[in-house]
Amino acid sequence: MEMGKNWPVMDSLILCPAPLVKRELGVSFNILPLFAKSFPNIRELQLFFGTEVPEFDGDLYPTYRFKKLGILGVGLSRIPNGQTRNIGFLLASICQHPPLIKFGA
After folding, report:
1. Helices (H), the chain
2. What is the pLDDT of residue 72?
3. Measured on CA atoms in the order 71, 37, 41, 8, is the torsion positive or negative?
4. How far apart are CA 88 and CA 84, in angstroms?
5. Rounded to an integer, what distance in angstroms lies between the CA atom of residue 18 and that of residue 54?
6. How many Å apart are CA 58 and CA 22, to the nearest integer?
7. What are the φ/ψ torsions at residue 60 (nearest 5 degrees)?
8. 10-31: b or e for each residue (b if 16 or more CB lie within 10 Å)?
9. Residue 5: CB atoms within 10 Å
């Protein structure tokens, strides 16, 4: 991600976590490792997630991890039915410390 290269000290990134329309859209949880690679020291990240959740691949120590993420905002994202376990495994693997999950508008 170019943004991470240009702003290496960014500590907060909020990208429309509560859209007013098209609530069925949203980014995939697959994007989190890319954010961890580009912004390893970010403290707060807020995104609107879709319902696509990857199967956890079992890698508890991936190459890229969030080192300081304290807040992961999910805004008005829907909870993917039956996928909370995979989301938990993904977050546990890419976050060195468990972040606070912030939800709502």
Report:
1. 2-6, 32-38, 84-94
2. 97
3. negative
4. 6
5. 22
6. 32
7. -80, -15
8. eeebeeebbeeeeeeebbebee
9. 8
pTM of the complete model: 0.88
Rg (CA), the chain: 13
Rounded Cα distance between 9 and 78, Å, is 30
Per-residue pLDDT of 66-105, as tens digits, reads 999 999 999 988 878 888 889 999 999 999 999 999 998 7
Residue type for 26, please? Answer: G
Judge contact between 39 and 73, C-beta under 8 A. Answer: no
Task: Answer yes or no: are the C-beta atoms of 48 and 21 closer than 8 Å.
Answer: no
Burial 54-68 (b: 16+ CB within 10 A, else e): eebeeeeeeeeebee
Give me the amino acid identity at 75: G
Helix (H, G, I), strand (E, B) or coil at 40: coil
